[in-house]
Design a protein that fits this description.
The strands form 4 sheets. Strands 1, 2, 3, 4, 5 and 8 form a 6-stranded mixed β-sheet that branches. A 4-stranded antiparallel β-sheet has the order 9-12-13-14, with no helix packed on it. Strands 10-11-15 form a 3-stranded mixed β-sheet, with no helix packed on it. The protein is about 45% helix and about 15% strand. A hairpin with a 4-residue loop joins strand 10 and strand 11. It is α+β, with helices and mostly antiparallel strands and about 525 residues long. It contains 19 helices and 15 strands. It starts with 7 loop residues before the first helix and ends with a helix.
C-alpha cells in the first residue's frame, strides 16, 4: 500500500482528519491505508511547513509535485545531482558549453554517478518542474528580443488636460533575461531607433543579433525565409556590428521570451503605476526605472539568483563592446548624378559633389545630422559635412573633371575684384550675376565671358555697357555683347530696347535686325 500512488483527494482528506485531531490509527482504518503510509504523508506535511488551508487551495498537479516526490525514496546520487543543476543551467548558457562536457566533468567528480542519458533525463525533469514553458536554450550574448506591449501607459497633456496613450518598448536578453523598458510617444523610426540605442547603453554591450517583431519601422516586407529589413535598421546594425533577425509571421514561439516578459511587466510595472498621473514622458520613464530595477533584481521562481545576477555572471562579458561614437539616426534618399558632378539632396535643397565618372548614375544618399555620404551600389563614393544652406553647392575639387577644374580655382571675390578693375558699373554687374541662384559654374562662365570683352573693346566701353545693361531685367553675357555690337553703350538716351529685341549670341537674324 505504501508504494501505491494516492489520489490527491485522499491526501487532503488524510491531512484534514489529522489537523482535526484524529489519530494516525483511526485515519488508517477510516481511509483504508497502512499506518506507514499515513505516517509518511504526515511527516511530509510537517516538512513542507504548509497549513491545511494553504494546501487545499493548490491544484492536483502542485500537490502531486509537493508530496509524491517526497514520499518516494530518492537515491543519494540523485540528491547530489539535483544540487548541481542550478550551476549546470548557468554553465549551459556559456558559449561552447554542452551537456556532454558538463556530464564528463560531473563523472570526474562522481565516478559512480549517472550515465549520460540518465544525466540528461533528470536535468530535463528538473527544468520542467521549475519552468515547464521554457523550451529554447539561449547562449550568453547571442540574442536580445524586442517588442512593444499591447497595452499602453498614458501621459496627460498639461495644456489641454487630454490623456494621451503612449507606447512601451520592452527588450529581453535571451540568456539572462535582463529586461529593459522605456515609454515613447510613438513606434515611428525616431522613437524605435532611439529605444534601441538606449537599450544597448543599458546593457553596456551589443549582442550578436537583435530579434524584432514585424514592425513597420523594422521590416519593409515580411517573409518566412528572407524578410526585407528597413535601411534605417540595417544602418543601425552596421554601426553596432550586429545582425537583425525579424521573427517569422504567425510563429509566436519565435518571440515567446519577450511576450512572457511583457506579461510580467504588466504585473510589476503597469499595475504599480495604474493610479499615478504623469505629465511628461520623462516623468513616466523616471517612475518606470526603479520598478524595472526591482524586477531585474528579483530572484527567479525556484532559484536563488536574479536576472541581474545571471547577467553579471555569464552574459555581460559575452556582449560585444559598444562603438566609441554614438549612433546618429540617418535619412536615406535616392538621386541621379547631374552633369555638373553633383547630386541634389532635396531634404536640405543643397548640392554635393561626387567623382565625375558617376555622371548619370543612380546613387544612394545617406545623411545624418553632421555628415552626408553618397553610395553607388555598396561602395561609398563621396563624403561631406552636412550643409543646411539652401540652393548652394558643396564641392570637392578632386571630383571635377580636368577640363572643368579651373572653375574650382575661382571664387566670387576674385570675379568682383576683376570687375572692379574694369569699372564701378562692371563690378556691380558682376555682383548681380553672382547673386543669381544658379550653379556656380554657370555664374563663373557668364562672368568670364563679360570680363573677357575688355580685351576687345577696352575697359571704358565695357564699363558703360554694364551701366546700360543693369537697366534691363535680364542680367547676362548676351545682353552685354549685344549692347557692345551696336555701340549702344555711348547713346545718351535709351532707345527703349525690349528684351525680345536683343539678339542672342551668334544669332544671325538678330544681327541683321540692327543693320
Amino acid at each position: 500500500m505504501a508504494n501505491k500512488r494516492l489520489d490527491m483527494r485522499n491526501i487532503l482528506q488524510l491531512l484534514r482528519l489529522y489537523t482535526q485531531g484524529v489519530s494516525k490509527l483511526q485515519i488508517s482504518r477510516q481511509l483504508g491505508l497502512s499506518r506507514n503510509t499515513v505516517k509518511k504523508y504526515i511527516e511530509s506535511f510537517h516538512q513542507n511547513s504548509f497549513t491545511y488551508q494553504e494546501l487545499s487551495g493548490l491544484s492536483n498537479e502542485d500537490l502531486e509535485e509537493l508530496f509524491d516526490g517526497q514520499i518516494k525514496a530518492v537515491p543519494e546520487k540523485n540528491i547530489v545531482l539535483e544540487s548541481l543543476f542550478p550551476t549546470i543551467e548557468k554553465e549551459l548558457k556559456r558559449v561552447g558549453v554542452t551537456r556532454q562536457l558538463l556530464w564528463e566533468e560531473y563523472r570526474e567528480n562522481h565516478p559512480n554517478g549517472y550515465s549520460y542519458s540518465q544525466f540528461c533525463y533528470h536535468y530535463q525533469n528538473w527544468r520542467g518542474k521549475l519552468k515547464p514553458s521554457m523550451h529554447m536554450h539561449h547562449k550568453a550574448g547571442d540574442k536580445v528580443f524586442v517588442d512593444y506591449t499591447g497595452k499602453k501607459l498614458s501621459v496627460i497633456d498639461q495644456s489641454t488636460g487630454e490623456v494621451c496613450e503612449v507606447e512601451v518598448f520592452v527588450s529581453v536578453l535571451g540568456a539572462s533575461g535582463l529586461t529593459f523598458v522605456e515609454a515613447t510617444r510613438t513606434q515611428n523610426k525616431e522613437d524605435f531607433m532611439g529605444s534601441l540605442v538606449k537599450m544597448l547603453d543599458y546593457y553596456q554591450g551589443v549582442p550578436s543579433a537583435i530579434v524584432t517583431d514585424n514592425l513597420r519601422t523594422a521590416v519593409k516586407k515580411s517573409d518566412k525565409y528572407e524578410p526585407l529589413v528597413t535601411e534605417y535598421l540595417l544602418d543601425f546594425a552596421s554601426h553596432y556590428a550586429t545582425t537583425i533577425l525579424p521573427t517569422r509571421a504567425y510563429h509566436p514561439k519565435d518571440k515567446a521570451l519577450v511576450e512572457n516578459a511583457v506579461r510580467i511587466i504588466y504585473t510589476r510595472i503597469f499595475a504599480p503605476l495604474r493610479k499615478e498621473e504623469f505629465f511628461t514622458i520623462e516623468a513616466l520613464n523616471d517612475a518606470i526605472l526603479p520598478l524595472l530595477e526591482k524586477h531585474n533584481t528579483m530572484s527567479f521562481k525556484g532559484r536563488k539568483y536574479s536576472r541581474l545576477d545571471l547577467f553579471n555572471e555569464i552574459e555581460k562579458e559575452a556582449l560585444s563592446f559598444l562603438p566609441v561614437n554614438p549612433y546618429q539616426l540617418k535619412g536615406f534618399a535616392k538621386a541621379t548624378v547631374h552633369k555638373s558632378s553633383h547630386v541634389y539632396l532635396n531634404k536640405d535643397k543643397h548640392y554635393y559633389s561626387v567623382p565625375f565618372i558617376y555622371m548619370g548614375k543612380k546613387v544612394l544618399i545617406i545623411y545624418s545630422k553632421t555628415t552626408v555620404e553618397i553610395y553607388h551600389g555598396q561602395r561609398i563614393i563621396a563624403s561631406h559635412q552636412r550643409d543646411y544652406s539652401k540652393y548652394l553647392y558643396t564641392t570637392n575639387n578632386e571630383h571635377m573633371p580636368t577640363s572643368h577644374q579651373f572653375v574650382a580655382e575661382w571664387n566670387p571675390e576674385r570675379f568682383i575684384q576683376w570687375g572692379a578693375s574694369v569699372g564701378e558699373f562692371c563690378k556691380s554687374f558682376i555682383i548681380q550675376i553672382l547673386d543669381k541662384k544658379q550653379h556656380p559654374e554657370q555664374s563663373y562662365k557668364s562672368c568670364t565671358g563679360v570680363l573677357s570683352l575688355a580685351n576687345k573693346v577696352g575697359n571704358d566701353r565695357l564699363n558703360n555697357a554694364c551701366k546700360r545693361a543693369m537697366d534691363y531685367e535680364k542680367i547676362n553675357y548676351p545682353i552685354i555683347k549685344s549692347i557692345l555690337e551696336k555701340g549702344l553703350e555711348f547713346i545718351d538716351e535709351d532707345p527703349a530696347i525690349e528684351d525680345k529685341e536683343i539678339p542672342k549670341h551668334n544669332n544671325i537674324r538678330g544681327k541683321e535686325y540692327y543693320k
